Amino acid sequence: MKMKGALLFLVFTIVTMLTGCGQLLVLDPKGPQGRTTADVIMISIWTMAIVVIVVIALYVYIVRKYRASNQREDYEPPHIEGSLKLEIIWTTIPILIVAFLSVVTVKSTYEVEAIPKGYEQQEPLVIYASASNWKWHFSYPEEDIETVNYLFIPTNRAIQFKLYSYGPMASFWIPQLGGQKYAMSSMVNTLNLAADVPGEYMGRNASFTGEGFAEQTFNVKAMSQKEYDEWVTEVKETAEPLTAEKFNQLLEPGHLGQSTFTGTHLGFSPPPEAHHNAGSLDNDETDSEKSANKTDEDSSEEN
Q1: Rounded to 10 degrees, what is the CA torsion of 276, 148, 256, 136?
Q2: How many helices (H) and strands (E) in the chain?
Q3: According to CATH, what is the number of the domain 125-279?
Q4: Which of 44, 71, 215, 294 has its CA 20 to 30 A from that of 202?
Protein backbone atom coordinates (compact mmCIF):
# COMPACT_ATOMS: atom_id res chain seq x y z
CA MET A 1 0.00 0.00 0.00
CA LYS A 2 2.86 2.37 0.77
CA MET A 3 4.38 1.80 -2.66
CA LYS A 4 1.02 2.28 -4.37
CA GLY A 5 0.48 5.53 -2.48
CA ALA A 6 3.95 6.77 -3.45
CA LEU A 7 3.30 6.03 -7.13
CA LEU A 8 -0.06 7.81 -7.02
CA PHE A 9 1.57 10.82 -5.35
CA LEU A 10 4.28 10.89 -8.06
CA VAL A 11 1.71 10.75 -10.88
CA PHE A 12 -0.39 13.48 -9.22
CA THR A 13 2.66 15.72 -8.81
CA ILE A 14 3.73 15.33 -12.46
CA VAL A 15 0.21 16.03 -13.76
CA THR A 16 -0.11 19.09 -11.52
CA MET A 17 3.22 20.49 -12.72
CA LEU A 18 2.41 19.92 -16.38
CA THR A 19 -1.01 21.53 -16.15
CA GLY A 20 0.58 24.58 -14.57
CA CYS A 21 2.96 25.07 -17.48
CA GLY A 22 2.16 27.28 -20.44
CA GLN A 23 2.11 26.11 -24.02
CA LEU A 24 5.41 24.62 -25.16
CA LEU A 25 6.19 26.68 -28.23
CA VAL A 26 8.78 24.23 -29.55
CA LEU A 27 6.02 21.61 -29.78
CA ASP A 28 3.78 23.96 -31.78
CA PRO A 29 5.86 24.38 -34.95
CA LYS A 30 4.89 26.68 -37.79
CA GLY A 31 7.54 25.73 -40.34
CA PRO A 32 9.45 22.71 -41.72
CA GLN A 33 12.55 23.24 -39.58
CA GLY A 34 10.42 23.67 -36.49
CA ARG A 35 8.52 20.45 -37.23
CA THR A 36 11.76 18.54 -37.63
CA THR A 37 12.95 19.84 -34.26
CA ALA A 38 9.62 19.03 -32.59
CA ASP A 39 9.65 15.50 -34.04
CA VAL A 40 13.12 14.84 -32.63
CA ILE A 41 12.04 16.11 -29.21
CA MET A 42 8.98 13.86 -29.19
CA ILE A 43 10.98 10.83 -30.37
CA SER A 44 13.45 11.42 -27.52
CA ILE A 45 10.65 11.86 -24.97
CA TRP A 46 8.84 8.67 -26.05
CA THR A 47 12.09 6.69 -26.10
CA MET A 48 12.95 7.81 -22.58
CA ALA A 49 9.37 7.23 -21.44
CA ILE A 50 9.45 3.63 -22.67
CA VAL A 51 12.73 3.01 -20.86
CA VAL A 52 11.43 4.54 -17.63
CA ILE A 53 8.12 2.65 -17.77
CA VAL A 54 9.86 -0.67 -18.42
CA VAL A 55 12.36 -0.09 -15.60
CA ILE A 56 9.62 0.88 -13.11
CA ALA A 57 7.49 -2.11 -14.15
CA LEU A 58 10.44 -4.50 -13.69
CA TYR A 59 11.27 -2.87 -10.36
CA VAL A 60 7.71 -3.35 -9.06
CA TYR A 61 7.62 -6.95 -10.37
CA ILE A 62 10.96 -7.91 -8.82
CA VAL A 63 10.25 -6.25 -5.48
CA ARG A 64 6.86 -7.92 -5.27
CA LYS A 65 7.95 -11.39 -6.44
CA TYR A 66 11.20 -11.66 -4.52
CA ARG A 67 10.30 -9.86 -1.30
CA ALA A 68 11.28 -11.70 1.89
CA SER A 69 7.68 -12.25 3.03
CA ASN A 70 6.95 -14.09 -0.21
CA GLN A 71 9.52 -16.84 0.38
CA ARG A 72 9.42 -20.01 2.47
CA GLU A 73 11.14 -19.91 5.82
CA ASP A 74 13.58 -22.63 4.71
CA TYR A 75 14.25 -20.98 1.33
CA GLU A 76 17.91 -20.87 0.33
CA PRO A 77 18.89 -18.96 -2.83
CA PRO A 78 20.62 -21.13 -5.43
CA HIS A 79 24.26 -20.54 -6.34
CA ILE A 80 24.31 -18.86 -9.79
CA GLU A 81 27.49 -18.11 -11.73
CA GLY A 82 25.74 -15.67 -14.10
CA SER A 83 23.56 -15.56 -17.19
CA LEU A 84 25.19 -14.89 -20.53
CA LYS A 85 21.80 -14.29 -22.17
CA LEU A 86 20.78 -11.65 -19.63
CA GLU A 87 24.14 -9.91 -19.88
CA ILE A 88 23.86 -9.78 -23.67
CA ILE A 89 20.32 -8.42 -23.44
CA TRP A 90 21.02 -5.63 -20.97
CA THR A 91 24.16 -4.65 -22.88
CA THR A 92 22.58 -4.74 -26.33
CA ILE A 93 19.43 -2.76 -25.49
CA PRO A 94 21.27 0.45 -24.38
CA ILE A 95 23.53 0.20 -27.44
CA LEU A 96 20.50 -0.04 -29.73
CA ILE A 97 18.80 2.90 -28.00
CA VAL A 98 21.89 5.11 -28.29
CA ALA A 99 22.40 4.06 -31.93
CA PHE A 100 18.76 4.84 -32.76
CA LEU A 101 18.88 8.29 -31.13
CA SER A 102 22.23 9.00 -32.80
CA VAL A 103 20.84 8.26 -36.27
CA VAL A 104 17.78 10.43 -35.60
CA THR A 105 19.93 13.28 -34.28
CA VAL A 106 22.45 13.24 -37.14
CA LYS A 107 19.72 13.02 -39.79
CA SER A 108 17.71 15.87 -38.27
CA THR A 109 20.84 18.02 -37.83
CA TYR A 110 21.57 17.87 -41.56
CA GLU A 111 17.92 18.66 -42.31
CA VAL A 112 17.73 21.78 -40.15
CA GLU A 113 21.10 23.06 -41.38
CA ALA A 114 20.08 22.89 -45.04
CA ILE A 115 17.52 24.91 -46.96
CA PRO A 116 14.06 23.76 -45.75
CA LYS A 117 12.48 20.92 -47.70
CA GLY A 118 10.35 22.12 -50.57
CA TYR A 119 12.26 25.40 -50.90
CA GLU A 120 15.49 24.12 -52.43
CA GLN A 121 14.81 25.63 -55.87
CA GLN A 122 13.76 28.97 -54.41
CA GLU A 123 15.97 31.99 -53.88
CA PRO A 124 15.96 32.62 -50.11
CA LEU A 125 15.33 35.96 -48.49
CA VAL A 126 18.60 36.90 -46.78
CA ILE A 127 18.32 38.80 -43.51
CA TYR A 128 21.31 39.86 -41.41
CA ALA A 129 20.44 39.49 -37.72
CA SER A 130 22.96 41.20 -35.45
CA ALA A 131 22.81 41.34 -31.66
CA SER A 132 23.90 44.11 -29.32
CA ASN A 133 23.27 44.80 -25.62
CA TRP A 134 20.29 44.21 -25.53
CA LYS A 135 18.71 44.54 -28.94
CA TRP A 136 18.32 42.75 -32.26
CA HIS A 137 19.06 44.53 -35.54
CA PHE A 138 17.59 43.06 -38.75
CA SER A 139 19.07 44.18 -42.05
CA TYR A 140 17.26 43.39 -45.33
CA PRO A 141 19.89 43.97 -48.06
CA GLU A 142 17.45 42.93 -50.81
CA GLU A 143 14.92 45.58 -49.74
CA ASP A 144 17.50 48.04 -48.35
CA ILE A 145 15.66 48.50 -45.06
CA GLU A 146 16.44 47.74 -41.42
CA THR A 147 14.35 47.07 -38.31
CA VAL A 148 15.13 46.90 -34.61
CA ASN A 149 13.50 44.37 -32.27
CA TYR A 150 10.94 43.14 -34.77
CA LEU A 151 10.96 41.00 -37.87
CA PHE A 152 8.56 40.74 -40.80
CA ILE A 153 8.93 37.75 -43.11
CA PRO A 154 6.91 36.30 -46.01
CA THR A 155 5.37 32.86 -45.63
CA ASN A 156 6.22 29.97 -47.95
CA ARG A 157 9.67 31.34 -48.70
CA ALA A 158 13.03 30.21 -47.41
CA ILE A 159 14.60 32.70 -44.99
CA GLN A 160 18.36 32.66 -44.56
CA PHE A 161 19.59 34.49 -41.48
CA LYS A 162 23.17 35.69 -41.22
CA LEU A 163 23.93 35.88 -37.51
CA TYR A 164 26.62 37.91 -35.76
CA SER A 165 27.03 40.14 -32.73
CA TYR A 166 28.31 43.59 -31.83
CA GLY A 167 28.75 42.51 -28.22
CA PRO A 168 28.70 39.27 -26.21
CA MET A 169 27.77 36.02 -27.92
CA ALA A 170 23.99 35.82 -28.18
CA SER A 171 21.71 32.96 -29.18
CA PHE A 172 19.13 33.65 -31.90
CA TRP A 173 15.97 31.60 -31.36
CA ILE A 174 12.44 31.56 -32.79
CA PRO A 175 11.05 28.43 -31.05
CA GLN A 176 8.14 27.82 -33.44
CA LEU A 177 10.28 28.10 -36.57
CA GLY A 178 13.42 26.19 -35.61
CA GLY A 179 16.32 25.68 -33.26
CA GLN A 180 18.68 28.27 -31.88
CA LYS A 181 22.09 29.26 -33.20
CA TYR A 182 24.78 31.55 -31.82
CA ALA A 183 25.53 35.05 -33.03
CA MET A 184 29.21 35.84 -32.40
CA SER A 185 31.38 38.90 -32.85
CA SER A 186 34.12 37.10 -34.77
CA MET A 187 32.17 35.29 -37.51
CA VAL A 188 28.84 35.01 -39.30
CA ASN A 189 26.68 31.94 -38.72
CA THR A 190 23.97 30.90 -41.15
CA LEU A 191 20.52 29.74 -40.04
CA ASN A 192 17.91 28.53 -42.55
CA LEU A 193 14.25 28.80 -41.55
CA ALA A 194 10.83 29.10 -43.16
CA ALA A 195 7.29 29.83 -42.00
CA ASP A 196 4.38 28.19 -43.79
CA VAL A 197 1.68 29.43 -41.38
CA PRO A 198 0.87 33.16 -41.12
CA GLY A 199 0.93 34.53 -37.60
CA GLU A 200 2.92 36.29 -34.90
CA TYR A 201 5.72 34.45 -33.12
CA MET A 202 8.16 35.17 -30.33
CA GLY A 203 11.90 35.41 -30.81
CA ARG A 204 14.55 35.93 -28.18
CA ASN A 205 18.15 35.71 -27.09
CA ALA A 206 18.44 32.32 -25.40
CA SER A 207 21.96 32.91 -24.07
CA PHE A 208 22.88 34.86 -20.94
CA THR A 209 24.60 38.09 -21.98
CA GLY A 210 24.28 40.26 -18.92
CA GLU A 211 21.60 41.79 -16.76
CA GLY A 212 19.37 42.81 -19.66
CA PHE A 213 19.34 39.60 -21.69
CA ALA A 214 15.91 38.50 -20.41
CA GLU A 215 14.31 41.42 -22.25
CA GLN A 216 16.30 40.95 -25.45
CA THR A 217 13.29 39.70 -27.36
CA PHE A 218 11.78 40.45 -30.74
CA ASN A 219 8.43 39.93 -32.45
CA VAL A 220 8.16 37.92 -35.65
CA LYS A 221 5.24 38.36 -38.02
CA ALA A 222 4.83 35.94 -40.90
CA MET A 223 2.56 37.18 -43.70
CA SER A 224 1.74 36.56 -47.32
CA GLN A 225 4.16 37.76 -49.99
CA LYS A 226 1.68 40.45 -51.04
CA GLU A 227 1.39 41.83 -47.50
CA TYR A 228 5.16 41.68 -47.13
CA ASP A 229 5.70 43.67 -50.34
CA GLU A 230 3.17 46.28 -49.16
CA TRP A 231 5.03 46.60 -45.86
CA VAL A 232 8.35 47.09 -47.65
CA THR A 233 6.82 49.81 -49.82
CA GLU A 234 5.37 51.55 -46.76
CA VAL A 235 8.71 51.47 -44.95
CA LYS A 236 10.54 53.01 -47.91
CA GLU A 237 7.96 55.80 -48.08
CA THR A 238 7.74 56.66 -44.37
CA ALA A 239 10.85 55.53 -42.47
CA GLU A 240 13.87 57.69 -41.76
CA PRO A 241 17.27 56.75 -43.20
CA LEU A 242 19.74 54.90 -40.98
CA THR A 243 22.97 56.84 -40.51
CA ALA A 244 26.24 55.72 -38.97
CA GLU A 245 25.69 58.14 -36.09
CA LYS A 246 22.21 56.76 -35.40
CA PHE A 247 23.44 53.18 -35.60
CA ASN A 248 26.22 53.86 -33.10
CA GLN A 249 23.58 55.23 -30.73
CA LEU A 250 21.54 52.04 -31.16
CA LEU A 251 24.57 49.95 -30.19
CA GLU A 252 24.77 51.60 -26.77
CA PRO A 253 23.73 49.13 -24.00
CA GLY A 254 20.09 49.45 -23.07
CA HIS A 255 16.56 48.49 -24.05
CA LEU A 256 14.61 50.04 -26.90
CA GLY A 257 11.24 49.61 -28.51
CA GLN A 258 10.77 48.81 -32.17
CA SER A 259 12.36 50.98 -34.85
CA THR A 260 12.33 51.02 -38.65
CA PHE A 261 14.79 52.60 -41.09
CA THR A 262 15.52 52.85 -44.77
CA GLY A 263 18.99 51.67 -45.68
CA THR A 264 21.08 49.24 -43.65
CA HIS A 265 24.25 49.40 -41.56
CA LEU A 266 25.96 46.80 -43.77
CA GLY A 267 27.71 49.45 -45.85
CA PHE A 268 29.33 51.50 -43.06
CA SER A 269 29.47 48.78 -40.37
CA PRO A 270 29.83 45.44 -42.16
CA PRO A 271 29.63 42.05 -40.43
CA PRO A 272 32.74 39.95 -39.69
CA GLU A 273 34.57 38.56 -42.70
CA ALA A 274 34.63 34.96 -41.46
CA HIS A 275 31.55 33.03 -42.53
CA HIS A 276 30.16 29.64 -41.58
CA ASN A 277 27.71 28.80 -44.35
CA ALA A 278 25.04 26.13 -43.96
CA GLY A 279 23.22 24.43 -46.78
CA SER A 280 24.23 24.83 -50.40
CA LEU A 281 24.68 28.60 -50.49
CA ASP A 282 28.42 29.29 -50.50
CA ASN A 283 28.64 32.59 -52.35
CA ASP A 284 32.07 34.11 -52.92
CA GLU A 285 30.66 37.56 -52.38
CA THR A 286 28.51 38.10 -49.31
CA ASP A 287 25.40 40.24 -49.32
CA SER A 288 27.09 42.77 -47.06
CA GLU A 289 29.92 43.09 -49.58
CA LYS A 290 27.40 43.55 -52.37
CA SER A 291 25.64 46.22 -50.34
CA ALA A 292 28.94 47.96 -49.60
CA ASN A 293 29.96 47.82 -53.27
CA LYS A 294 26.58 49.19 -54.28
CA THR A 295 27.01 52.06 -51.83
CA ASP A 296 30.48 52.82 -53.24
CA GLU A 297 29.15 52.74 -56.79
CA ASP A 298 26.32 55.12 -55.93
CA SER A 299 28.77 57.51 -54.27
CA SER A 300 31.03 57.41 -57.36
CA GLU A 301 28.10 58.19 -59.65
CA GLU A 302 27.06 61.16 -57.48
CA ASN A 303 30.62 62.51 -57.61
Answers
A1: -10
A2: 6, 13
A3: 2.60.40.420
A4: 44
